Amino acid sequence: MRCVVFGATGYIGGRLIPQLLAAGHDVRAVARDPGKLAEVPWRDRIEIVRGDVTGPASVADAVRDQQVVYYLVHSLHQRDFVDVDRAAADTVAKAASHANAERIVYLGGITPEGELSPHLASRKEVGEILLASGVPTAVLRAAIIIGSGSASFEMLRYLTERLPAMVTPRWVHNLIQPIAVRDVLHYLTRAATLPPEVNGGFDIGGPDVLSYLDMMRRYAVVAGLQRRVIVPVPVLTPWLSAQWVNLVTPVPRSIAVPLIESLVHEVIRRDHDIDEHIPPPSEGLIHVEHAIELALAKIRDADVPTRWSDAGAPSDPLPTDPDWSGGSIYTDVRQTKTSADPKTLWSVIESIGGEHGWYSFPLAWSVRGWIDRLAGGVGLRRGRKDPRRLHVGEALDWWRVESLERPHMLRLRAEMRVPGRAWLELSVVPDGGSGAIYRQRAIFEPHGLAGHMYWKSIAPFHGVIFGGMSRNITGAAEALVNDPAPQKNHP
User: Where is the stretch described as Disordered (predicted)?
Assistant: First the structure.
């Protein structure tokens, strides 16, 4: 089949495409920024097109001549996500109908009984819009997805590992039915070849029905942790729970809220109708313990193909780009000559962040990260997928990799809460001999008076922060030249 995937740079989309290729399908991937797919291993086996689900023209171009439309998009990070998702689903539904597509496949969430939160109601509405398109549609509905890098798994992992004793809300006793990401991909892949008479919603889930409390305890057993002491209390509302998750785990408040709102109710599959059309995998559905084992193995091996943070907001142009005009721009530029060769210097630059840290005043970075978390931002705990190699579009602590010209330049775009837009650019220039020149540029475009005051208030610390980075990065590169043993963690 000819399949077009909206959400190709997201957590599920990035894992689904290799499965579709393995099944013999042709794939067209739609991305707002095609550069994010420049280094995926299956890049040369697919067609990549630029498109945005909110743009009717680009959506029409993307679905043209395609038989199957995979819709794996949501707008959790936007305040007007309900309107955005409604308009996007309507745009894709109409385009698929006009293009005479044979099938739409959408991954939503299991809808619990009772009053729905705005997030759950929006996911349900998107499914209804697609089902009413006139194109045969399969809406697959899942609860918690267990897999390395999923937001649900990261929340479970960090809560359990970091808190040997915790006070929890009553919803930890509600029943849920998690599903391994491998099983989700099994159903999504096979939905491409469903017969045309199949048009409806289907719950999918793993073989275990248990409480979130039980799942945390099972995680502790699999991870080799001591038994967790958990004391439920009745006063932690979903909003308060989200604040707690925001502080303790890498999952920001914007994602924690819909995750927890889905757990306030019992989220178990109400039907097994999907079995009539797509049988379970021949080896059976994966149990929770095994799903946790598989996810932890991927993390240990640094083999996490996608993460919840992969799908970021579209990039704004640098303020120095030709289409920008007006306003004030602040910069902090540093340049240091080093005896380290360009290749070694680049290896230090590309391994920055995550476990290697940011090479200057770790306490200041940590405090700034906690302030960002308290403000609902991403903080520093997103880390990185691979300790040595970066990819365009990847989340890196509170930054996102905007541009990567290996082995010369790395540009990061800030996603922390600041009154403006910020970038950090690190580059390597050969000096004509055996050494290199390290160049570092911090760029800040303020928004309003608050932006100007923000920059001026932190300017006195730039010598310590940015100056320290320049000195320590070149120092780390020189140390590697003298001692080529594997690079050690650096604050």
Answer: 307-327
